[in-house]
């Protein structure tokens, strides 16, 4: 406990009486004092990493680090990122061995036992926290901040060595040792946590071998073997039983032979390891792959900046090549049919990114909502992400979503996306079946269609449809969030509206004037070609403060039934964000857009016409309020960031906003009635970050007074 002492000076008010920890500060040797633990010097992590990159005479004591990391897991210290370590150097001639010095033991024994913290502790929520229980939980969360450090420094340890580390800790931390340690707790803490800590530590030390084996298998899935900027010799031998032995040697100063014992020597098991990546870094490196097998492990060779020689005469049955070579084109290559030559002049072909790896993961989602058309709605889904070599974000993504509402809407959607399937182009597909498509009402065609509020309340204008949608696409992402997408689609629709609705009675109503246009409500089978260009130069996608965005989308369709006509829709908008500080931050958003159908209007299904409304560029009106074969709209919004609460429970920012919208649709070139106008104001509350803003707005027009709430701002979509 830090005493209330005047020596604290200006920090006395803030820190006096607080509970804290004291730890040694490792120091370099002085002329009259030895270094910490007799070390020749002490380095921080990134300085230590540079020494490893520089020269293979600098090595890490992987067993000592493994023991330290096993102790972290034992006490559930989930915060062991790179800055939580220093490294003691012990010199032996030209060679230097670095031993780990753990620091900042501030996350050990953490207990997440509140409702919100319990949810945050799920492996699919916050990946970087894990609580201290009698049993080990998710090993990914427990080791999340340390994942890059461990993959860099501990890949020389095999499965048996991890078990020996567990046995070492079990022999060192006996039940008697735990009893002795918990007995030293201050009296004030004994009654609160001594028994609990004692029980959990004894349980965890017994489970430690199984826990370390689980973590070993996580690390073993994808392994990086990293050389240095000196020349090295890499030898890979594919053995007949499917295992792969990898050895790394210093290269002799004369010739290409190894110099001295192996710096790395491990045999990988195909049941544990999916791929091995060899990084030569700089220097003249020699890579040799040999051996024959029925099946084997994928090996990637990244030569590095020096002049390298890469030889592969291995053989593995099957069509897939299991050696991938990355280097510049003038590399000395002697490759068999087993090798895939991926040499290139592009920047980054030889890059080593220590933080490129991520664990495979999954993310469940739950949604709740309400609107007048659907009633109460709920959704549940899950996304599975598989990681891959040089695949930003993920290699493969699979999404599944179920949606339903009290209004009778049901829908199932499945989609997949594959990063960099063709060069830098992603590929994907989606499938949807149900009736939850984004079209709600139909009031007729034209800019001056009528609205009877009583009949709206009776769902007279309700106009839904149901069916199947299949999409495929190729997509190129650039400028971080900008997208160019193109792909085919297939749509199979039956209309889903009541016989006494507007669409159900339209052809038979005695008040329907003869010149009214024909409305296509027939069954549809459509094949389409869809293209999208989204040039997004905003500072962030949600709650943007500055930047511009340009979006153009075109959808063409051919009918496989009926008249077998062709039609389509082109739409787009331009958007500007600007923020100035006028006592408080004020953000102006201006968005202008429009759309145009082509084809015979009599052939176009009613839900494929362009429309304006609550979620279609004209706030203050019902969804799909005005439909036509062309549209224009202008949206403006002013956001006032009023303040931020920095409380310790849930910090949040808050503000207000106002908007003014104008829009109109056209039919056959006519737009009677002119511009429609909507305006309103609202407030927002953003817990933790502005990007999680929840907004509520009151919207007004000559037809409606509406209340809309949801995540984010409609104008940002």
Ends distance: 52 Å
How many β-strands, per DSSP? 34
Low-pLDDT stretches are none
Overall mean pLDDT: 93
How does the major sheet shape up?
Answer: 16 strands, antiparallel
How many H/I helical runs? Answer: 11
Protein structure class? alpha+beta
In what order do the strands lie side by side in the largest sheet? 17-18-19-20-21-22-23-24-25-26-27-30-31-32-33-34
Shape: globular
Work out the oligomeric state of the chains in this entry.
Answer: single chain
The gyration radius over C-alpha positions equals 32 Å
Strand content bin: 35-45%
Could you estimate the helical fraction of the residues in percent? 10-25%
């Amino acid at each position: 406990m830090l005493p209330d002492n005047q020596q604290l000076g200006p920090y006395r008010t803030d820190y006096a009486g607080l509970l804290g920890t004291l730890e040694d500060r490792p120091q370099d040797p002085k002329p009259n004092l030895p270094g910490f633990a007799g070390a020749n010097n002490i380095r921080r992590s990134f300085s230590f990493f540079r020494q490893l990159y520089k020269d293979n005479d600098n090595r890490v004591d992987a067993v000592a680090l493994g023991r330290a990391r096993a102790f972290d897991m034992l006490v559930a210290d989930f915060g062991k990122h790179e800055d939580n370590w220093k490294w003691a150097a012990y010199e032996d001639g030209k060679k230097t061995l670095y031993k780990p010095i753990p620091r900042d033991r501030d996350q050990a024994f953490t207990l997440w036992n509140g409702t919100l913290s319990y949810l945050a502790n799920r492996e699919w929520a916050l990946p970087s926290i894990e609580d201290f229980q009698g049993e080990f939980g998710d090993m990914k969360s427990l080791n999340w901040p340390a994942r890059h450090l461990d993959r860099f420094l501990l890949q020389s340890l095999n499965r048996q060595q991890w078990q020996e580390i567990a046995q070492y800790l079990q022999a060192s931390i006996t039940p008697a040792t735990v009893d002795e340690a918990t007995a030293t707790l201050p009296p004030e803490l004994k009654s609160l946590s001594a028994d609990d800590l004692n029980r959990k530590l004894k349980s965890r030390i017994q489970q430690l071998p199984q826990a370390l084996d689980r973590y070993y298998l996580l690390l073993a899935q994808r392994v990086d073997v990293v050389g240095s900027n000196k020349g090295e010799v890499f030898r890979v031998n594919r053995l007949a039983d499917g295992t792969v032995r990898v050895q790394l040697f210093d290269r002799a100063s004369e010739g290409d032979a190894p110099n001295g014992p192996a710096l790395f020597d491990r045999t990988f098991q195909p049941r544990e390891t999916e791929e091995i990546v060899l990084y030569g870094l700089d220097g003249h490196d020699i890579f040799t792959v040999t051996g024959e097998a029925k099946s084997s492990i994928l090996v990637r060779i990244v030569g590095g900046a020096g002049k390298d020689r890469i030889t592969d005469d291995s053989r593995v049955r099957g069509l897939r090549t299991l050696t991938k070579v990355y280097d510049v084109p003038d590399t000395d290559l002697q490759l068999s049919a087993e090798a895939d030559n991926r040499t290139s002049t592009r920047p980054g072909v030889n890059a080593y990114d220590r933080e490129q790896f991520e664990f495979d993961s999954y993310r469940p989602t739950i949604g709740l909502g309400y609107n007048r058309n659907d009633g109460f709605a709920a959704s549940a889904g899950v996304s599975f992400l598989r990681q891959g070599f040089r695949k930003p974000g993920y290699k493969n993504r699979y999404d599944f979503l179920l949606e339903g509402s009290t209004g009778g809407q049901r829908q199932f959607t499945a989609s997949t996306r594959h990063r960099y399937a063709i060069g830098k182009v992603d590929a994907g597909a989606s499938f949807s079946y149900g009736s939850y498509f984004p079209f709600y009402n139909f009031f007729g065609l034209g800019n001056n269609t009528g609205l009877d509020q009583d009949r709206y309340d009776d769902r007279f204008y309700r106009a839904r449809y149901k069916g199947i949608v299949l999409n495929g696409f190729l997509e190129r992402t650039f400028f971080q969030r900008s997208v160019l997408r193109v792909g085919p689609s297939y749509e199979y629709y039956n209309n889903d509206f009541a016989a006494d609705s507007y669409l159900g009675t339209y052809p038979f109503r005695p008040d329907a004037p003869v010149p009214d246009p024909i409305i296509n409500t027939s069954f549809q089978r459509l094949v389409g070609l869809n293209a999208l260009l989204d040039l997004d130069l905003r500072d962030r996608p949600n709650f943007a403060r500055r930047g511009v965005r340009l979006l153009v989308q075109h959808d063409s369709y051919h009918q496989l039934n009926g008249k077998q006509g062709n039609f389509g829709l082109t739409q787009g908008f331009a958007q500007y964000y600007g923020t100035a500080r006028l006592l408080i931050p004020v953000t102006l958003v201006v968005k202008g857009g429009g759309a145009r159908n082509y084809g015979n209007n009599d052939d176009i299904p009613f839900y494929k016409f362009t429309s304006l409304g609550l979620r279609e560029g004209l706030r203050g009106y019902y969804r799909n309020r005005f439909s036509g074969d062309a549209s224009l709209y202008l949206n403006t919004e002013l956001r006032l960031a009023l303040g931020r609460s920095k409380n310790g429970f849930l910090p949040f920012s808050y503000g207000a906003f106002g908007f003014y919208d104008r829009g109109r649709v056209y039919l056959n070139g006519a737009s009677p009635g002119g511009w429609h106008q909507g305006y309103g104001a609202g407030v927002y509350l953003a817990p933790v970050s502005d990007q999680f803003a929840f907004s509520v707005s009151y919207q007004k027009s000559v037809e409606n007074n509406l209340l809309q709430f949801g995540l984010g701002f409609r104008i940002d979509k």
